[in-house]
Specification:
Layout lengths: L1 H9 L6 E5 L11 H11 L2 E5 L24 E5 H4 L7 E5 L3 H7 L9 H5 L18 H36 L3 E3 L7 E6 L12 H16 L5 E5 L2 E7 L7 H37 L1
Parallel strand pairs: 1-2, 2-3
Antiparallel strand pairs: 3-4, 5-6, 6-8, 7-8
Helix pairs in contact: 6-8, 7-8
Length: 284
């Protein structure tokens, strides 16, 4: 971040904000917020944290260290519809100091003036955004809090991390699969283990074809996973923590994924075995 800022300044640009992420989309990775806060402080930049997915897990004491430095940020956002049982859409924005936001966006024509606003008795959120009107999104969150309570929401969030942990352990123990990144929160990134890593290294056309075959086979078998790319390498992703998801569901999903991977690797192994004698004959 510091190098990018220096490069911008040298090019005559004016950096105004630094954005960190707590829970990236592909692998749920976390930026070091204290380090970013140091850089932002030295250059006088607004520090925003995109915690759209990961921010919900800050409610769990065991995951608080991942958010170290969050208190030094100027703003951060959390999408409640991603993990907090809220129907789409609801995002919560937190700011350390509302005054810069109000100074930039507040506009009060005469027809909006009223005694409650003038006295400070109410918070006029239309001044926190570009649009004047807004839907009553917070009502959905109120219903969930009333239904589950803080303890119930924590239990729901924690269960997803526990299920992901068990799936990750099964991947590590399997000869057919491998982790593509450390298990993070409720997300497991994994791959079909290569039959011949030298012939088909990660990122190669053959390796990508193998991962695609596994993805399609697993979905055809009734288990929903998606793919992404990490460092240019195709990976598969299983997200845990549905409100009705239980351990047996994750175990069943793993059995399907491992079985399909075993079939593909067995077929690929046969192809490798067939090619070896041909290669030997050619060299002879």
């Amino acid at each position: 971040a510091a190098a990018a800022i220096e490069a911008d300044l040298a090019a005559g640009l004016l950096p105004v904000a630094l954005v960190g992420t707590s829970g990236t989309t592909t692998s749920c990775a976390f930026d070091p917020l204290n380090e970013l806060a140091d850089v932002a402080g030295r250059h006088g930049l607004w520090l925003h944290v995109d915690a759209a997915y990961g921010g919900a897990y800050a409610c769990l004491d065991e995951h608080r260290p991942k958010f170290a430095g969050l208190e030094r940020c100027d703003s951060f956002c959390v999408n409640a519809h991603k993990k907090l049982l809220i129907p789409f859409d609801l995002a919560a924005l937190y700011v350390a100091d509302r005054r810069p936001l109000l100074a930039a966006l507040a506009l009060t024509p005469e027809y909006l003036r009223n005694s409650a606003s003038e006295s400070g008795a109410v918070v006029d959120y239309e001044h926190w955004q570009l649009g004047l009107g807004r839907r009553f999104r917070a009502l959905k969150l109120w219903f969930v809090l009333r239904r589950f309570g803080a303890a119930g929401i924590r239990d729901h969030v924690r269960r997803g991390t526990q299920l992901a942990g068990s799936f990750g352990e099964a991947v590590v123990a399997s000869p057919e699969l491998e982790l593509a990144a450390p298990v993070s929160l409720s997300l497991v990134c994994f791959r079909c283990a290569p039959v011949d890593a030298a012939a088909a290294p990660p990122g190669s056309e053959a390796d990508e074809a193998l991962q695609t075959q596994l993805l399609e086979a697993v979905k055809a078998a009734g288990v929903f996973i998606i793919h992404s790319k990490l460092g240019g390498v195709k990976i598969l992703r299983l997200a845990c923590g549905g409100v009705e998801q239980r351990q047996r569901d994750v175990d069943d999903a793993f059995c399907v994924i491992e079985a399909e991977a075993r079939k593909l690797r067995a077929a690929a192994g046969c192809q490798v075995a067939l090619k070896a004698p041909l290669a030997g004959a050619a060299s002879a």
